[in-house]
Structure formats: structure tokens, C-alpha cells
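Service request form, structural biology core

Requester: graduate student, group of Dr. S.
Request type: structure prediction, single chain
Budget code: on file
Notes: please return the result as C-alpha cells.

Sequence provided:
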Amino acid sequence: MNIEDTKELAIEFAKNISAGDLIVLNGNLGSGKTFFVKEVLFQFGINNVTSPSFAIVNEYGKDNKFYHFDFYRLKNKNELDDIGFQDYLNDFDSIFFIEWGELFSEALPKNFIEIRIENLGESKRKFGITKHG
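Core staff response, request fulfilled:
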């Protein structure tokens, strides 16, 4: 998929998610995880999406609330406890995006959607979407 294909996938994906959904994005550095989240949230009128790499979590929206996590810089599961990760998950009216979720898969609920992005070159990606649980 190229950039335009990725945008089209994000448009279709956005039509099929709802409150309570947890989406885990896995892939190498620079594979397009944040870009995909940005394009999905754009469909909900949110256009200020940035990578949560240093903040660990970014929050977006008012009517529709979204939490965007990045586990890449976390050293252990205790750091998830420190930010209240499980408390966030109790907000069933929100949609969650988690980059690098595979790093702490034991902290994830059993029901989630996984998007695996494979970098095939400068502007080509392969997406795999799997529903777990």
C-alpha cells in the first residue's frame, strides 16, 4: 500500500470502530503507526494528532474521546501502572490506540484489534488486521 491506499484504509477502518474498541498497532520504527492513527482520527474531525512517544499517552476529542498510547519507551509493566493504564481502560466510552502494544501484551485485555504494519520500502506498507478475543 502507498500513502493514498493507507488513507483509504484509514477511512474504511474509522467507519467500523466504536466506543470501547482497543486497537493495537505493531510494526518497526517508521512503519506508519502514528500516520495511520492520525488518518483514522482525522475522520472524526481531529487534526492535531502527534506521536505520544515521549508523553506516553495523548488524549483527543470531546464528544468522541480517544486515547493514543505509545509503549515504545516504557521499560517495564510497572510504568504502565504508574500512568494508570488500567484506569484508562475503564473508560468504555472511549476508543484506544496503542502503538508497540506487543511489548506489554500481558497488560492488554483479551479483546482487541491488532494492526500489524510491515515496511516494504520508502512508501510501501503491508497491513494485517486481526481481531483478538
